[in-house]
Specification:
- By secondary structure, the chain is of the alpha/beta class.
- It folds into three domains: 121 residues, Nitrogenase molybdenum iron protein domain (Rossmann fold, 3-Layer(aba) Sandwich), CATH 3.40.50; 136 residues, Rossmann fold; 109 residues, Rossmann fold, CATH 3.40.50.1980.
- The strands form three sheets. A six-stranded mixed sheet has the order 1-12-11-10-13-14, sandwiched between helices. The protein has a four-stranded parallel sheet with strand order 3-2-4-5, sandwiched between helices. It has a four-stranded parallel sheet with strand order 7-6-8-9, sandwiched between helices.
- Strand 6, helix 8 and strand 7 form a beta-alpha-beta unit.
- The chain is globular, with a radius of gyration of 22 Å.
- It starts with 11 loop residues before the first strand and ends in a 12-residue tail after the last helix.
- The model has no long low-confidence stretch (mean pLDDT 94).
- The protein binds iron/sulfur cluster.
- This protein may play a role in the biosynthesis of the prosthetic group of nitrogenase (FeMo cofactor).
Length: 445
């Protein structure tokens, strides 16, 4: 394709067009302005919603402000996670080292806020100057008698995806360190829901209606004690597989807890998530409760979706999101409201994920891995998309091209998961696509 970097050929695929399949999971290509964030950012977005922990960024202030309140992750209790603490490293620390600064900051913050645990994030400059973050954390943990976990996530090591793995390892070090929570015979951990706009609370309610206990939500509305007890659940239900598969696999190896991948976006996948969990527990009563729940929800939801479906019929959407499971759910959810997906891309999908994505897309759909603004703009022009679904970095692409935008990333303030979320999603898509503002914008294609 003209204007595109030749070395990215294998990461771009048109369904029904080129014969090769899409290769995912590759490091970003130098010269391609990847939409992926850094390793530190990846670790921070995963751990951030643990609300009763201290999150201290050991680095220059920019790393902390870049990730300050990075998710719309809500808490039903403490909100310590929403403060962005930093050791604020300066030139003198780069020359003489920042360990003393880190030690003092940890003492001061733990004394002031009494967190249940502390996560210390190592950033690029800390990796360069070689501060021994782990030994400072070990020392403070002993002195303060709380877990103090070094998250060795220097930004330059790779991409956001590597940060996910580091965050999972940090949590794995907490899991199995407490056994005091009461658990039922049917208990699960929810992995990879971050309680954006309170979505986790809706899901928790569904599972409660089925008689299932959520032992730990990792990490939305997360609590240190729940995570410490997470090894006692019967099942891990993994949503954002890109960020949490490593933890699910670790827990399977260490504690024998099986896991299943689900998605809570769109009617089909939301209902499957409930049915699959009911099936796991082999309880007819739980399955009946799941069926009743789905029936109740759909009886209300389907008629309310109908007007949106009529209004949106024939519209075309571009999707560029973090993980492939979300992209797959979005293709299905859009189809339900009459919208065709013409571009489907992700930052962190692997080759297997893209095979699944390809299978549910229509012919002509462009699939892309680890894309950049030039490519995405070009694809929108080629396909004539009316709507872009993405995150903060894709919003300007859509607006500059004069098309609607729906925020489906971790900054969003609107619940889009579950049945209620499906209705919000349809409304959001309708409102942005049919906004009168577009009549004043001259489309550049
Ligand atoms: S790339 Fe390095 S300096 Fe930039 S935000 Fe990430 S950790 Fe901080």
């Amino acid at each position: 394709m003209a204007g595109f970097l030749k070395d990215r050929e294998k990461q771009i695929f048109t369904k029904g067009g080129n014969s090769q399949s899409l290769v995912g999971g590759k490091p970003s290509l130098a010269g391609s302005v990847s939409q992926r964030a850094c390793v530190f950012c990846g670790s921070r977005v995963v751990l951030y919603p643990i609300a009763d922990a201290l999150h201290l960024v050991h680095g220059p202030i920019g790393c902390a402000s870049y990730t300050w309140d990075i998710r719309g992750a809500m808490s039903s209790g403490p909100e310590l996670h929403r403060s962005s603490f930093s050791t604020d490293l300066r030139e003198k620390h780069v020359i003489f080292g920042g360990e003393k600064q880190l030690y003092q900051a940890l003492h001061e913050l733990i004394d002031k806020y009494h967190p249940k645990a502390a996560f210390v994030y190592s950033t690029c400059i800390v990796g360069v100057i070689g501060d021994d973050v782990q030994s400072v954390c070990k020392r403070v943990a002993k002195e303060k008698d709380i877990p103090v976990i070094a998250v060795m996530a220097e930004g330059f090591q790779g991409s956001k995806k590597d940060g996910y793995k580091i965050a999972c390892d940090a949590m794995a070090s907490l899991i199995g360190t407490d056994n005091s929570k009461e658990i039922s015979t049917m208990s699960i951990n929810i992995l990879g829901d971050f309680n954006l706009a309170g979505e986790l609370w809706m899901l928790t309610e569904y599972y409660k209606r089925m008689g299932i206990q959520i032992l730990a939500s990792i990490t939305g509305d997360g609590r240190v004690k729940d995570i410490q007890n997470a090894h006692r659940a019967s099942l891990n239900v993994v949503q954002c597989s890109g960020s949490m598969m490593h933890l699910a696999k670790t827990m399977q190896e260490q504690y024998g807890i099986p896991f299943m991948k689900v998605s809570y976006f769109g009617i089909e996948d939301m209902s499957d998530a409930l049915y699959e969990v009911a099936k796991f527990f082999k309880s007819e009563e739980t399955m009946d409760r799941a069926r009743d729940l789905v029936k109740d929800e759909l009886t209300t939801l389907l008629p309310t979706l109908e007007p949106y479906k009529v209004a949106l019929q024939g519209k075309k959407a571009a999707i560029y999101v973090g993980g492939a499971f979300k992209a797959i759910s979005l293709v299905k959810a859009l189809r339900l409201i009459g919208v065709k997906t013409v571009i489907a891309g992700t930052q962190t999908g692997n080759t297997e994920d893209y095979k699944l994505l390809e299978a549910i897309c229509d012919d002509g759909c462009i699939l892309v891995d680890d894309s950049n603004p030039v490519e995405l703009s070009e694809f929108v022009k080629q396909t004539g998309a009316d709507l872009f679904i993405g995150g903060v970095k894709e919003r300007p692409i859509a607006y500059k091209l004069g098309i609607g935008f729906c925020d489906h990333n971790h900054e969003r303030k609107l619940a889009l998961a579950g049945y209620e979320g499906m209705l919000n999603f349809a409304k959001e898509v309708y409102e942005t696509v049919s906004s009168p503002v577009w009549q004043f914008v001259k489309r550049s294609f």
